[in-house]
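Blinded run. Sample ID left blank on purpose so nobody reads anything into the name before looking at the predicted structure. Input follows.
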Amino acid sequence: MSGTLVLVRHGQSEWNLKNLFTGWRDVDLTDQGHGEARAAGQKLKERGLKFDIAFTSDLQRAQKTCQHILDAVGQSDLETVRNQALNERDYGDLAGLNKDDARDKWGEDQVHVWRRSYDVPPPGGESLKDTGARVWPYYLHDMQPHVLRGETVLVAAHGNSLRALIMALDGLTGEEVVKVELGTGVPIIYRLNADSTVASKEILDR
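Blinded prediction complete.
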């Protein structure tokens, strides 16, 4: 086996709590979200994991989750790379809207298509396929080389940027990946072979 890749969706955000489309809006974690991030770090500490480098998005909810995890494992000063390639999917005109209000305006079926289809973007925003188009090259060029050198890499990001990564790692189709549910603050541990294929996958659920 080669290295280890740990993926963590940020803890609950203020807009998760309010049922709002968030996307690239830079909202903070709730008290529960801070707790979820600390708990994720504690679980990883219990596994004896130490990281060589961390990656996160340009958005504070992911950055704070990343820092809580690093604090918990005793690596507060670890090199952390921030890049908008790992940002949440851009929800465009839906950003800031309550999901129920969006259903009232555009209809249940249309909003479901925007939320859960692979390649249909909301107005002014990105589809999951579009999100993948920025996540995959960033993973291949900036993140995967560390894992293939045998390092342990932390990625604290968002539901859809991580879905895109999981799609590539697990070899999922567009239809399969939209059904993947990611809990907030739940670490997923991948161990990769030297040829970049997945040797094992473990979800440290609550």
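Unblinding after everyone has recorded impressions. Helices lie at 14-17, 31-46, 60-72, 99-106, 108-116, 128-148, 159-170, 174-177.
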